[in-house]
């Protein structure tokens, strides 16, 4: 595929998979994670492993020979545990060896076989346990009850745990030290069940993405005054009335409420959130009128209005959001007239205008945006002339113009963008090998997509200078996998992903 879908959809290819593995990753504009990385050893060629590394590797291979690691120092037993998880060798039997080991972090997210029978050993870590990831597991409310003995737990990830309900939340209500709680994609949590969260007064991060039963329940978290990040996107039950309790969350810095029923009126309740810097309203029923309320947020720097009801009408209010660094206006009915009001937003570093009615002349308004690093102009009316207006974006790192009417003459205008690292010109069917010649001087490129064009094997010679290239996509072009592999073996040592392959 030459372009990734703009949004996660219930009709996406992953729909047929088990729900726990059908993660809804939002756009590159806004992402969040509660996962803790597993420890593993990555030695460079020629490096000699340490004695500890060799011992852990050997234990991992002979894990069935050991009954207990409780006598080992905690940091060593932790590394053994992480290695077993990473190598997929941890079982319910080998887990028993970690009973009473005082481990701090148990990252079992998406790990096969995790269920209630594992929870006794997990809870035996007691007050030492700080972080647990059980996402995608078969743990039930009963299994969750074991965690009540882990009073120092700081982070708990229960994403895609289908069998956790309100009763399960009651089991963790006493974990008042929790700072991070993630309950993504849970159909069983209700507004009434959310009342249990009111006692988790130290929560800093709360993720309730795709929890369809929480309408009316946000009133129970209005006392969580330490909360900095709240994710309730893809909860289509959320309405304007749910926004009022959020006005009490004075420390809130990040709020994601995309694909809800919130309107301009609901957004008006957010005016008092003086620390809010990231706001995701993708797919909400808002218009440019909501900008009146957003103008009262002095720290707002990241704003996603993708797929809203934004038109040119009222777009002059964008000029009041002078601290914006990231702005997503994709798939809105805006024209060059709207871009004229973005002219004063000189702090912009990322701008998405995907599928808007933007033309060549509108890009003149972006000429003064010296801080711009990422620009998306796919499926717009921008052509060769418009690219000329971009020639002075010396800091631009990422440029995407898919499905346009670009020709080789237009691509010449980006030769001066020497800082470009990601370039996507796919679905511009008139581009030829001459475009690759123009691109050959962009030696910082790590990703290049020129699919659905007239590029041939002969043009590949122009890519020899792109030594940093890691991803190359030339689908539906007159090139072969054999020639790309040949180019990689002789000139592109860092190329790890390519199509066709």
Task: Summarize the SSE layout with pairings.
Elements: H1 51-61, H2 74-86, H3 92-95, E1 105-107, H4 119-123, E2 131-133, H5 141-144, E3 155-157, H6 166-171, E4 180-182, E5 205-207, E6 229-231, E7 254-256, H7 264-267, E8 278-280, H8 291-294, E9 302-304, E10 326-328, H9 336-339, E11 350-352, E12 374-376, H10 384-388, E13 398-400, H11 408-411, E14 422-424, H12 433-439, E15 447-449, E16 471-473, H13 481-490, E17 497-499
Parallel strand pairs: 1-2, 2-3, 3-4, 4-5, 5-6, 6-7, 7-8, 8-9, 9-10, 10-11, 11-12, 12-13, 13-14, 14-15, 15-16, 16-17
Provide a concise account of the structure shown.
16% of the residues lie in helices and 10% in strands. Among the domains are: 48-103, no CATH class; 397-501, Ribonuclease Inhibitor (Leucine-rich repeat, LRR (right-handed beta-alpha superhelix)).
How would you characterize the overall build of this protein?
Helices cover 16% and strands 10% of the residues. It is α/β, with parallel strands linked by helices and 501 residues long. Among the domains are: 48-103, no CATH class; 397-501, Ribonuclease Inhibitor (Leucine-rich repeat, LRR (right-handed beta-alpha superhelix), Alpha-Beta Horseshoe). The protein has a 17-stranded parallel β-sheet. The protein is flat and about 70 Å long. It starts with 50 loop residues before the first helix and ends with a strand.
């Amino acid at each position: 595929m030459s372009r990734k879908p703009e949004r996660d959809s219930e009709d996406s290819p992953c729909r047929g998979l088990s729900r726990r593995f059908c993660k809804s990753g939002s756009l590159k504009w806004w992402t969040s994670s509660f996962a803790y990385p597993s420890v593993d050893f990555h030695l460079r060629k020629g490096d000699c492993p340490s004695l500890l590394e060799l011992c852990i590797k050997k234990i991992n291979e002979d894990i069935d020979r050991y009954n207990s690691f409780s006598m080992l120092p905690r940091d060593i037993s932790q590394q053994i545990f992480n290695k077993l998880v990473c190598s997929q060798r941890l079982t319910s039997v080998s887990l028993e060896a970690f009973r009473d080991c005082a481990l701090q972090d148990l990252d079992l997210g998406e790990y096969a076989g995790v269920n209630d029978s594992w929870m006794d050993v997990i809870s035996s870590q007691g007050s030492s346990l700080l972080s647990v990831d059980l996402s995608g597991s078969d743990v039930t409310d009963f299994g969750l009850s074991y965690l009540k003995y882990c009073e120092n737990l700081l982070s708990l990830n229960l994403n895609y745990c289908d069998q956790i309900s309100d009763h399960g939340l009651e089991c963790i209500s006493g974990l008042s030290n929790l700072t991070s709680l993630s309950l993504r994609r849970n159909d069983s949590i209700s507004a009434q069940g959310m009342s249990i969260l009111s006692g988790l007064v130290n929560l800093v991060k709360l993720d309730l993405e795709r929890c369809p039963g929480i309408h009316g329940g946000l009133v129970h978290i209005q006392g969580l005054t330490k909360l900095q990040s709240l994710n309730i996107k893809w909860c289509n039950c959320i309405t304007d009335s749910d926004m009022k309790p959020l006005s009490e969350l004075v420390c809130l810095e990040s709020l994601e409420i995309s694909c809800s029923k919130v309107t301009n009126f609901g957004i008006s309740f957010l005016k008092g959130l003086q620390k809010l810097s990231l706001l995701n309203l993708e797919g909400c029923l808002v218009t440019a009128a909501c900008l009146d309320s957003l103008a009262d947020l002095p720290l707002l720097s990241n704003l996603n209005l993708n797929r809203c009801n934004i038109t040119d009408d009222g777009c002059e209010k964008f000029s009041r959001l002078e601290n914006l660094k990231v702005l997503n206006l994709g798939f809105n009915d805006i024209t060059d007239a709207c871009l004229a009001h973005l002219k004063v937003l000189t702090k912009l570093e990322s701008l998405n205008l995907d599928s808007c009615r933007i033309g060549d002349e509108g890009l003149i308004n972006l000429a003064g945006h010296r801080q711009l690093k990422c620009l998306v102009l796919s499926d717009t009316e921008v052509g060769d002339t418009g690219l000329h207006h971009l020639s002075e974006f010396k800091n631009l790192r990422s440029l995407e113009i898919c499905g346009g009417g670009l020709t080789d003459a237009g691509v010449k205008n980006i030769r001066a963008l020497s800082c470009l690292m990601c370039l996507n010109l796919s679905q511009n069917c008139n581009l030829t090998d001459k475009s690759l010649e123009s691109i050959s001087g962009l030696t910082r490129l790590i990703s290049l997509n020129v699919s659905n064009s007239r590029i041939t094997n002969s043009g590949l010679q122009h890519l020899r200078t792109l030594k940093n290239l890691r991803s190359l996509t030339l689908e539906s072009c007159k090139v072969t996998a054999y020639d790309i592999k040949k180019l990689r073996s002789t000139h592109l040592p860092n190329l790890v992903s390519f199509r066709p392959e």
